[in-house]
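anyone seen this seq b4? input:
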Amino acid sequence: MTVMKVVINLSLAEQKKKGLLFELAVARGVLKNGKFLKNIIQGDAGFIGAWSLGGTVLPVEGMRSDWPGVTLERVYLIQFMD
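predicted toks r here
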């Protein structure tokens, strides 16, 4: 297995970050490009969730207001059950 470190800055220095639309999509793209994921999700899909600094995926609430006008075939919303 190849060990690599990827650092991606998801926020601009001069702008406050708004929303969580791109975190999981960017992470999925990096993992897929590194051949760590198979292409099991096809088509026009979106991923909604928060990526913590520790590398865990966190659930989010009220995300629909962050993506008005976005049309996707599938949306994967990360949810956790207690």
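The helical segments are 23-33. The mean pLDDT is 68. kinda curious what u guys think
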